[in-house]
Amino acid sequence: MSVSDIDLVNAWKQVLSLSKMQPGQTVTILTGADTHPQTLRCAITAASDMGARLNRLDLPPVNAEKSLSRDSLAYLGVTPLTGNNAAIAALKESDLVLDLMTLLFSPEQHDILKTGTKILLAIEPPEVLCRLVPTEADRLRVQAAAKRISAAKQMRITSAAGTDLLCQLGEFPAISEYGFVDEPGRWDHWPSGFVLTWPNEGQSQGRIILDRGDILLPMKDYVSEPIELLVKDGFVTSIQGGLQADLLKEYMASYEDPQAYAVSHIGWGLQPRAHWSMLAHYNKETHIGMDARAFEGNFLWSMGPNNEAGGSRTTACHIDIPMRNCSVAIDAEYTVIDGVVQDDFGLAQASRRKKFL
What we know:
It is a single chain. The chain has 8 helices and 20 strands. The protein is globular, with a radius of gyration of 20 Å. It is 22% helix and 26% strand. It is α+β, with helices and mostly antiparallel strands. α1 (5-18) packs across α2 and α3 (85-92) packs parallel to α4 (107-113).
């Protein structure tokens, strides 16, 4: 169902308030060919009404001749900012950048953030933005989970379907995505609501079984039959199954990059207002699947780069895979059991936590 401009303006105002935008601050809206017009006009209205000094920077698309998909996360290479020093300078001079284009996994983004500029990505459809307006409670829950990861040495993921993956931790920070940017130099994504980190380089081992109903992104497909992935020394070394396994293998092979098969970020969803079933209701080209990434209790893992966490691995290929019904343990203490989050905020009670034998 479509949303009214007033609803989306109010949603923007809540996000901007949580992001501590102040009257007189410079806000630059970064747009591109696929920017949603309602999202743009409501962002302009909200930021202007709150007293921002507003700019719009519109940049042409890139990578179309290389990508197999229209999804903005399907090819992570050159960005519209690459070599564009004038545009980069404008963003660095901004207090807040509202990214309605998708500037992600790029050195330019890191360079801008280092100046203290805040960047908020918002590219999902307006009705998704309104349903998943972030709250202070989202921040508290995600940061509590990130604190647990920060103190951990390993993460183990298991499932009744046969997954058993062990990842060593400590080389990379825990990342909190809760949907707003309340600190200088912070990046976040509205909507979100999940926690993640990256395993130590070369220190992930095990077997992942994608079961019926798990999700492949950016394909935006539900898995219909099991897919087995073997992980050795931090890389997926085998992908076996039926048609969807073949499609995944062919898609990844098209990038001609061995780094595409590296285990990238790992974590779990904490957003109760996000829904696993959302993919069934939307045209694939209208969204990037943030419900799938954030729904409460998922195990979200990926293949591809780690430069977002300060690592040196870059690759144009990035596969996100949200899985259902997994159990996630941090240093032998469960944080998710069979897809139910074990914290004081969600559906489960802390008393349900248990130890690995």
